[in-house]
Each structure stands twice: as structure tokens, then as C-alpha cells.
Amino acid sequence: MARSTPADEVPGVPARRAALRMLDAVLHRGDPLDQAAPPVLRAIERGDDRALALAIAQESLRWMADLDALIDGATKQVLPEDAKVRSVLRLMLAQALRLNLPGHAIVATGLPLLVGGPRRLAHGVFSAVTKSGAKLPEAPTLPPAVAARWQVAWPERLGAIAQGLAEPPPLDLTLRDPAQTAHWAERLGGQSLAPGHVRLARAGAIEALEGFREGAWWVQDLAASVPARLLGEGKGRRALDLCAAPGGKTLQLAAAGWQVTALDKSARRTERLAENLKRSGLTAQVVVADALNWQPEHPFDAILLDAPCSATGTCRRHPDVLHRHANLAELTALQSAMLDRAATWLAPGGTLVYAVCSLEREEGELQALAFDKLTPAPVTEAELPDGLTPTNGHFRSDPGMLSAAGGIDGFFAARWVKG
Ligand SMILES: C[S@@+](CC[C@H](N)C(=O)[O-])C[C@H]1O[C@@H](n2cnc3c(N)ncnc32)[C@H](O)[C@@H]1O
């Protein structure tokens, strides 16, 4: 339902108000931006205004520590962390310093968000920062809690990871038919970094791209396409995609000839999985169930466990993950319980791949180290996209890798076989 806006409202204010609501939902309610955005954006009529609102929220979250430093440098008294004026200033400065929008438009659309509030203060701080010629650093400063964790986990990669976060990522597509890679790379004007992969520099409306309607491809970061690649061709054998929705990996497995059972606990997310299957013309048996109490009717030749995790590896496209507080102890307990159950569902000779889109070693490397129910089957360089190499027999990527080609999400995958 469209939210009514005052008839005399300055054009552009609804997009900024939406950005403010999204920021509030992420920072003060702990919601994922993916969840907060759709209801807020539905109220905005024009597609370009919706895209602008999202970009403002994302850039504010990506550069928040640096925007806050500029705000604090221009105020006599430190504004409370949860003050509305601080959030409005974050949005205004993100528009000036990241989206290069003109100052007068930013002021005209930003100050109405503070009706009855400290508008003069906001105007003064915004003018002081922009007139001083202040710039953002080359790479975003990570929020202190994240920086402290990754300094321990990735002491040598931290600078590259932060640099990899500086820009929103390009758009990666996975093709239904990898034999058509050169064809689709040319048709869409993209670059391919692996068979069945095409990277586009700028997205625009995804639905308008050639091949979307007939399901010739689906959106999937290059890193996220690796775990299913590690299972190879299915040749009609049975695969279980455990934690499958919204289904990027289900589509890959079905396209690679696996007879797929796709299980997920979320009915809402499995609806999207079913839509994605329909669009691509691929098939899978879709099961809505909790992996912790479901029992299969038969063993599987392959299981892909794409476990729920902190999702910190997706921070380039989802900078909100940097500001939410994942309960790592709870998540790692869930992941290892799922791994243990999955191991019992494999047929002899079957393969298990465990994957997480996380930069937390507890969810990746340490989880694999602790798992001893199956025999490790090391990942080889030939199985990975060009420019990536296995680490201790596992696949590990981070946002600082493949930087010349546009980067890659942080991901971890390990593989075992049942002897
Ligand atoms: C990382 S996402 C999966 C992404 C998906 N594999 C893809 O490629 O599109 C993790 C999924 O785990 C599901 N999940 C979380 N807890 C679960 C449980 N106990 N049983 C089954 N699915 C669960 C969530 O609903 C979510 O869809």
C-alpha cells in the first residue's frame, strides 16, 4: 500500500526518508537491510528513487565510521550514537561524498527529515564538512568490533579486505548452460572469470537484461557459485541441497544434472526458490523442513550444506552485516549440528560440501577442522575460478581478492567423502 506524502513535499524527500528508515531498522532494530528495504521502498513510486534510497542507505552503512568521524570533527558536543540528527547527517554526507549529488539538493531533501528538530545544527555541520573540502579515505574504516575480530583472524589481509569494501560490487551471473559462456558474455557485454560465469560492470534493472525472462542465468556472486562447482556433474544422481533458499545453488546443481532435493526451513524463502526454478525451467523437489529434525527417505550421493551464518563475507553488497551483531556461538553450534546430521545421510562414496558466506574463521576453517566424521577431499586449483588457489585444501575467498577484476565475496567451502 502506498504511503501518502504531503502534496507540498519537496520531490526527493520520500527517498531520503526511506533511507533514514532503513538505517534505523539496521542500526537500532538489528534488521538485515534485505528485510528492512522492501516494505519501506514499496512506498516510493519511481524505480530510480527506490534505487537512490537504497544506494544512500548502503553507502551510509559502508562508510559509517568515516562519516561519523567527519560529523564528530564538526560538532562541539558529540552527538549521541542513536540521535536522529546523526543519522540524517550520515545520509546527507554519503550523498555528497559518495554519490556526488549537489549540496543544495541534499540540504533541501535532508532538512525536512528533521521537522521540529535540530535543522540548523544539521545544516551547519553539513556545510562545515563540505566546505572544508573533507574527503573520505581510500578504504572504509571498519567498525571497531569487526576490525578487532578480523585483525586477529586475517592480520595480513585486513587492508586488502577493507579496500575491497570501498565500492559496491559488480553484478555476477551464473549461466544455466556453461557451454554458452562466451555467447552470454558477448551478448551482455560482460567478462567471464570461470565457465558458466559472466560479470557485468553495472546492473541497472536486472529484469530488463537479456536472458532474464527465459532463465538463461541467475544472479549469484562468483564466490557463491564455487561450492556447487565442487560437486561436479550429477549424471542423474541424487543431491541434497541443505539450506537451499532462495536457490542459487539448487539451480546450479539441477543444471549440472543432479536430481535435487532442496530443503529449507523458511516457507517464505522457499517460495522464491520455487519461482527461480520456474523461471529457469529447472526442477527440484522442494521441502520446507527444519534440517535438525527432518529425516530423508534415502541416502544421497552428494550433499551441499550452505549453512546459516553471520554472512560477513557479503559485506561488499550488504554493508549492514558490518553493523549487526551475529551470535557466533549460536551459529557455530547450529552449523556443527547440521554437519553431523548431513554426514549420516550420505551414500557410501558420496560427497559432502560445507559452505558459509562468512569471514569468521569459527564458521569456516575452525568448523572444518573440528569435523572428523568423513574423509577430507581437498579442493584443487583447477576447480576454482582463475586467480584463486585453495588454502589448506579448502576454498577461502575474501573481498580483497581478484581486485583488478572487480573483487569477490568472502566465502569458505570444504569437501569430504564417505569412504
Ligand atoms: C546461506 S542461506 C542459503 C542460501 C542458498 N543456499 C542459496 O544459494 O541461495 C541459509 C539458509 O538456511 C536456512 N535455514 C536456517 N536454519 C535452518 C534449519 N534449521 N533448517 C533448514 N534450513 C535452515 C535459512 O532459511 C536460509 O535460507
Automatic annotation (TrEMBL):
Keyword Transferase: yes
InterPro entries referenced in this protein's UniProt entry, alphabetically: MeTrfase_RsmB-F_NOP2_cat (IPR049560), MeTrfase_RsmB-F_NOP2_dom (IPR001678), NusB-like_sf (IPR035926), NusB_RsmB_TIM44 (IPR006027), RCMT (IPR023267), RsmB/NOL1/NOP2-like_CS (IPR018314), SAM-dependent_MTases_sf (IPR029063)
CDD domains: AdoMet_MTases (cd02440)
Keywords tagged on the record: Methyltransferase, RNA-binding, S-adenosyl-L-methionine, Transferase
Active site, per annotation: 357 (nucleophile)
Any single GO BP term: RNA methylation
Occurrences of domain SAM-dependent MTase RsmB/NOP-type (ranges): 144-419
Family per record: Belongs to the class I-like SAM-binding methyltransferase superfamily. RsmB/NOP family.
Record PANTHER family: NOL1_NOP2_SUN FAMILY PROTEIN _ ANTITERMINATION NUSB DOMAIN-CONTAINING PROTEIN, NOP2 YEAST -RELATED NOL1/NOP2/FMU SUN DOMAIN-CONTAINING
Name of protein: Fmu (Sun)
